[in-house]
Amino acid sequence: MPDAAPVDVPQPGTPAxxxxxxxxxxxxxxxxxxAFRGHPAGVAVITAEGPxxxxxxxxxxxxxxxxxxxxxxxxxxxxxxxxGVVLGAPLFVVHxxxxxxxxxxxxxxxxxxxxxxxxxxxxxxxxxxYLPDAASVLRCRPxxxxxxxSSTVVVAEVLDIVVGLDRGEPLVxxxxxxxxxxxxxxxx
Length: 188
Fold this sequence. Notes:
The protein has 3 helices and 12 strands. With 188 residues, it is mainly beta. The radius of gyration is 20 Å and the shape is globular.
């Protein structure tokens, strides 16, 4: 067995040096995707009423911006299909999903939305269609949209909220897969 090369082991309390990256040859897009693959995010389904009925998509970019007034933000990676309908709608519904909603999240992550008469849809008092199986439902109106490269950032005011009474374990998207967080995953 050959001798192993010596390894520098940092002393306790000494921060580890960041990995070296050759910025001249690194593919920044691939590195960016890889970095965020390791960063878990909550899962939401965003729906809107289009000319052909309700449509939607799964997003992992939804975040809270402010509480008073309640404002959220998300980004969409294209301006066509379901994303185009959401971007063109005067109102849309953001569904925050728990682990029990993974089938819905997967369904809206693929091409084609469920038909208007599909039993997954319910109707809010406002008349907007929504997914009753979501952990929380936020009816929103866009405040601003900002195109950035091939994506559009949407800032939206939350008009109405329905919080589910019986929430399941949180659903997160990590390394291109859905995961649930359990009490066993708690670190503190």
